[in-house]
Amino acid sequence: MSQRDFYEVLGVSRSASLDEIKSSYGKMAMQFHPDRNPGDKESEDKFKEAAEAYEVLSDENKKAKYDRYGFDGLRGTDYHQYTNMNDIFSSFGDVFGGSIFEDFFGGSSARGGRHRYAGEAGSDIKIKLPLTMEEVCTGARKSIKIKRLVVCDSCHGTGAKSGSSKKTCHTCNGAGEVRQVQRSIFGQMVNISVCPTCRGEGQIIAEKCETCRGDGRVHGEDKIEINIPPGVESGNYIPVSNKGNSGKNGGPDGNLIVIIEEKKHDLFLRDGNNIIYSLSITFPQAAIGDEVEIPIINGKHKLKIEPGTQPGSYISLRGKGIPFLNSNTKGDFIVKFNVSVPSKLTSREKELLMELADSDNFSINGNSKKGKDILNKIKDAFL
Question: Which residue among 118, 242, 249, 363 is least packed, with the fewest CB closer than 10 Å?
Fold first, then answer.
């Protein structure tokens, strides 16, 4: 990403109109075009920088975000840095009606090799990758198999039968596009469209490859190794460059997009980077305390239950939860207490509970009668 102010790059003011921005970009594109400055790395960099600036300032939404927040405002948009000349020609080659380069370089011939014959980029492939909570906490290395389009071994991606070759498209004469001139009250209107015969390639196959039937690609299968960092969550995705479908006619391969899905855990519930565990304890354990061993993620932990633990209360084990992505910090492991009430009681157990109802420690706000009434209701429920 260029770090120079985009208005400074194009030499226009912040109040410049779209026509002024377009005109300035056209002049710079002509000045620093690589065909006019062969082998000049500085000119090539300025050519790319101007394209980046024009991409933002010619788009109303991107321009508004850039004007308000600068480069930070472009994060999360589809703005990208241009590293490939073909991308620039593809994005802006026809932006000024035909091409901003045609007048200087004499029609479409100068950019035909760069743009039309550059090949078609392969499409991206998206897959979902389920992970356990344990894998989310520790990170994982996964080996997956994907089905994708790969270059045909028989024709090496040309689509032509062995011994055959491509020939110039007779419809567009190699231009990759067709033009139709229409007369109207406003004068001549030129409509430019992709050639229907060669689909913009400028060439057609004389004899198609029997293996791929002229596509240049066949269905294949790849085994991909993917490193999953700790702390990912559902909806996160990991791009794997050039592992999507292969491009056509030498075009770049697409990418593999691995989308994370979290499996439901039998014991634990995720809450952000915290893990919640519901622990059922008995009434005596809640009243007099105890020490128990509980499961935590990838291990065990001895937990002290304090006397007088109330139903619904919880304690936090610091740093025993899920790591934050790209950080050494972890969330907490939260233990929530549920007091288990027995569904059946023996006669002796009932007697003991009734005795306890008269104790001051089992009273509510100092009223032992209320405590006894509550225990009577419990007793009636079990009878």
Answer: 242
pLDDT at 146: 95
- Going across the sheet that includes 333-340, the strands are 268-271, 274-282, 333-340, 314-317
Domain membership flag for residue 378: yes
Look up residue 53 and give its amino acid: A
Note whether 154 and 209 are within 8 A (CB): yes
User: Do the beta carbons of residue 265 and residue 101 sit within 8 Å?
Assistant: no
Q: Are strands 140-151 and 166-168 parallel, antiparallel or unpaired?
A: unpaired
Q: Which element (helix H / strand E) includes 380?
A: helix 368-382
**56 and 84 share a domain?**
yes
Write down the pLDDT at residue 116: 44
Same domain? For 232 and 298 the reply is no
Contact 218, 150 (CB under 8 A): yes
Residue 137: inside a domain, yes or no? Answer: yes
For the whole model, what pTM was predicted?
Answer: 0.58
Same domain flag for 4 and 131: no
Distance, in Å, from the CA atom of 113 to the CA atom of 267, rounded to the nearest integer, reads 61
Range of the domain at 46: 1-118
Judge if 238 and 148 occupy the same domain: yes
Residue ranges of the chain with per-residue pLDDT less than 50: 1, 83, 86, 89-117, 368, 370-372, 374, 377-379, 381-383
DSSP 3-state of 81: coil
Six-digit token string for 359: 């104790």
Residue 250's Cβ-count burial label (10 Å; 0-12, 13-18, 19+) is middle
Do 273 and 334 sit in the same domain of this protein?
yes
Please provide the DSSP assignment of 26-65 as one string. HHHHHHH-TTTSTT-HHHHHHHHHHHHHHHHHTSHHHHHH
